[in-house]
Design a protein that fits this description.
Rossmann fold, 6-stranded parallel β-sheet, 393 residues, 22% strand, 12 helices, single chain, alpha/beta, 2 domains
């Protein structure tokens, strides 16, 4: 990984990216080989040549036009999990990470008529196996055959960037079930945010879906938290309260622009007391926990009212104590989600296409494919207060 970042090069690239995009969109020729970043050891990526993959039944070949760096990418690159390649850790297996990408359909697999060559699309991660109990229930992000896609163990599961090659490359193969159309007036960079908004939508869907007129607290103004604010407001939630730390001052202001009715700086005010103050002594209907802070679940349990619901999108690195008695006595429901299930990405994409919230506000930095290690460093270290860092081809 790169030790230093080149800010001047990054700024020069941002200036030239607009010019090259229009030219590239018209060129749909497919080479035999492509550039792709491969995970070698922990925190070790190498730019290599790979054969361009070929689509099978119910698949298309996507020319990747842009890919965003997600916090889970950082976990995969450093620790391996939750990626699972050939039944084990993803290191030294010619695996390409990256999962929040968009691009252009350049080749159709046998029998595919859901999309056309030249169509712009964004992707979600999980195709699932389609045969297990969870997939049949629409919970394909909880597929019981996760990682079973190799040799005699191939049960059809696919999760690009986790169990199959992902988006830090020039091309990738996607199942038609994982793709959503991108409107022409949406930029490539903004389209990479569709899957992030989809995760927020899935969280609200699990909490109950019908949030109009009800209060939602979003804890943690990272990319998913900020999208949670935008989606909740677009669905009619009121009030939407966003909580963050002193370090998150700029992000809290972005949260206001995305629709937060109130923001709470927990470095200056007790988070639970602030929510009760805003809600006139009552608790919130829902809490969307996106911070991963060790104390967050216990705080969320005291932010919601009796019968309230909490969705955990993030989690701490180590086990933490939880006041289970408080949860039980107050009939509080706690849910955990993985990814963007139940076609939530499609619904989030619809809200973004209708411009119901300005998702592009969270895109802060752009780098070319050759500078993926720099893009990852910006995201990991929050250089220049990076929120969503995008790699543009």
């Amino acid at each position: 990984m790169a030790d230093n970042v080149n800010v001047a090069e990054a700024k020069d690239y941002r200036k030239s990216a607009v010019v090259t995009t229009a030219v590239r969109r018209k060129d749909l020729r497919i080479p035999e080989r492509m550039q792709a970043w491969v995970l070698v050891g922990a925190d070790e990526l190498t730019l290599m040549e790979k054969p361009v993959p070929q689509p099978g039944v119910a698949e298309v070949l996507v020319r990747i036009d842009a890919v965003a760096v997600c916090g889970t990418d950082l976990e995969v690159i450093s620790h391996g999990e939750p990626a699972l390649i050939q039944g084990g850790m993803p290191f030294n297996k010619n695996f390409t990470p990256g999962h929040e990408y968009m691009g252009t359909v350049v080749k159709l697999g046998p029998g595919v008529d859901e999309f056309e060559v030249g169509e712009r699309i964004a992707v979600e991660v999980h195709a699932g196996c389609g045969r297990c109990e969870r997939c049949r229930e629409g919970m394909y992000t909880a597929c019981l055959n996760y990682g079973m896609n190799y040799g005699e163990h191939d049960k059809g599961h696919r999760a690009n960037g986790f169990t199959t090659d992902g988006g830090f490359a020039e091309y990738a193969v996607n199942n038609v079930n994982t793709m959503v159309p991108v409107p022409e007036d949406m930029s490539d960079e903004e389209a990479t945010l569709i899957v992030t908004a989809g995760t927020a939508m899935y969280g609200l869907d699990v909490l109950g879906g019908l949030v109009a007129g009800q209060s939602v607290v979003v804890m943690g103004p990272g990319a998913i938290g900020l999208m949670g604010v935008g989606v909740a407001k677009a669905l009619g939630a009121s009030p939407v309260i966003l909580a963050g730390t002193h370090r998150d001052r700029n992000r809290l202001e972005i949260g206001r622009k995305l629709g937060a009715d109130e923001v709470v700086n927990v470095s200056e005010e007790d988070a639970v007391a602030a929510v009760k103050r805003i809600l006139r002594g009552k608790g919130a209907h829902y809490a969307l926990e996106c911070s991963g802070a060790p104390a967050a679940l216990n705080q969320a349990a005291r932010m919601v009212s009796r019968g309230g619901r909490i969705c955990l999108v993030a989690f701490p690195q180590e086990p933490v104590p939880v006041d289970v008695a408080h949860l039980v006595r107050n009939n509080i429901y706690v849910y955990g989600i993985r990814g963007e299930g139940r076609s939530a990405t499609r619904r989030a994409a619809a809200l973004m296409a209708q411009k119901r919230f300005p998702a592009k506000l969270i895109h802060t930095h752009t780098f070319p494919l050759a500078q993926v290690p720099t893009a990852i460093q910006y995201a990991r270290e929050r250089i220049e207060d990076a929120i969503k860092v995008v790699v543009k081809m």
